[in-house]
Amino acid sequence: MPSFAANTSAETASTSASSTETNKLVSEFSALAGSTDNARSLVTGLRSGSSVTLTLNGGSTTFASPTKPLGYGEINIALSLAQESLAKQGITSPTPQQLQAALTGKSGILTLRGEGKGWGAIADSLGVKLGKVVSSTKSESSEKLAGRAQTGEQSGKVDRPEKIERPEKVERPEKVERPGR
Q1: How far apart are CA 123 and CA 20, in angstroms?
Q2: Distances from the Cα of 75 to the Cαs of 42, 52, 67, 134, 181, in angstroms?
Q3: CA–CA–CA angle 142, 148, 149 (5° rounding)
Q4: Rounded distance, CA 154 to CA 148, Å?
Q5: Which of 42, 126, 127, 180 has the least C-beta neighbours within 10 A?
Q6: Which residues contact 119 (CB under 8 A, 6 or more apart)?
């Protein structure tokens, strides 16, 4: 019975961590997806390997990813590359169909990933550097944190007490020589 309780707390911690990651990605890619609901559908669909439904003005587009379920980092990379690919075409507010084409079209990001290509090779095929694309999403997150710091908004971290200084090391007395040795 105690192992059940331990599993439950571990599952709760895992669930809260995954919802935090999901929320980060949803807020990061809401503009790309056109809405928070579309971004949530993208993130959860790619994470679980289920279908993704994107809606706009009463119309909807549904598609399935040609890859296995993706991790949060992979979702960040895929959506960042899609955003970069669409921006190179001059599309900053894509329709659901344009976003679907960028992800699962003939040479879409997820299609290439499903064919076994690595993220670096996919980025190269788009004419971008993977590090630049990924670091730009991280720097945007850093800018949000910097904005919070300027406004005095708390990041949710617990303040730790200052580190206690250790006392200086006491010197040992010199070794006394014994007579007769």
Answers
A1: 27
A2: 9, 13, 11, 11, 75
A3: 90
A4: 7
A5: 180
A6: 74, 77, 81, 113, 130
Residue 145 CA, chain-centre distance (Å), reads: 15
In contact, 69 and 49? CB cutoff 8 Å: yes
- Helix, strand or coil for residue 123? helix
SS3 154: coil
Nearest to 43 by CA among 25, 59, 55, 27: 25
| pLDDT value at residue 109 | 92
Angle value at C-alpha 15, between 113 and 96, nearest 5 degrees: 40
Look over the chain and give the mean of its residue pLDDT values, rounded to a whole number. 80
8 Å CB contact between 79 and 51: no
* Token pair 């908004």 in the structure block, residue: 153
Which residue's structure tokens are 């007579």?
179
Q: What is the pLDDT of residues 9-57, one digit of tens each?
A: 444 445 556 688 889 989 888 888 889 999 999 999 999 989 999 998 8
Cα(first)–Cα(last) distance of the chain, in Å? 66
Q: Which residue do the tokens 């944190």 mark?
A: 145
How far apart CA 178 and CA 53 sit, in angstroms, is 88
Query: Which pLDDT belongs to residue 167?
Result: 81
